[in-house]
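hey so u asked for the seq, here:
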Amino acid sequence: MAPPTWQITDFGDSAVLAKAAGAGPERCWQAVQRLADALEPDDRVSDLVATYDSLLVEFDCDEITHTELTEAVHRTIAALPTAPAPLGSRAFRIPVVFGGSCGPDLPAVAEELGITEQDVVDALCSREFPVRFLGAPAGAPMMDGTPFAQPISRCPQPRVAVEPGSVALSGHQAVIYPVRSPGGWRLIGQTPLKLLDIADEPYVPYQPGDRFRFVPIDADRWSDCAAQGPEVTDA
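ran it, structure tokens below
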């Protein structure tokens, strides 16, 4: 399969956006991750934000220009291996209390899909979800590949505060809120695991390419699972 083509454009006064296309979603995502790994932040590049098919490269205007950075990104792309090794991946077991006060939108999601609440839970727990990138706020694991044919709509009215550990769906994506924050995604469950620890390095134990498997638990197991922490089941 041919590698993706790249389009690099100016993005505001201190960033460029490199977008991969033409090679399928999985291949484009992998190419974006490899480009992000190759472009480590330095005194010129201040930050890198990798998503499903694009990489935002933020830079210091006093150190480099848009044109110079674009040329540097093109050189880095040209140096990437044509047959790269597979990205590393670990599997995490994520215990979740589904429905009730932990997942108040589960009934609405089931109704929207025309299936039962248990069908929703069974489908979500039947597969692994790849972590595609770390989003806002604070390292939220953005995942895709929900097992439903139709996208899940967002809440008509976003919530002012969503509790940490809330598992939510929108479109064909899933996410876990690592901190208390506003949000408009459908809440279908909550994990007792603490995902974010600002006193640790890295702040979250997972990275793009890792996989999450949701495991349903009863509410009376909350404290036991919280004490155990995230469990890596394979690497």
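The mean pLDDT is 91. The CA atoms of residues 42 and 59 lie 9 Å apart.
lmk if thats what u needed
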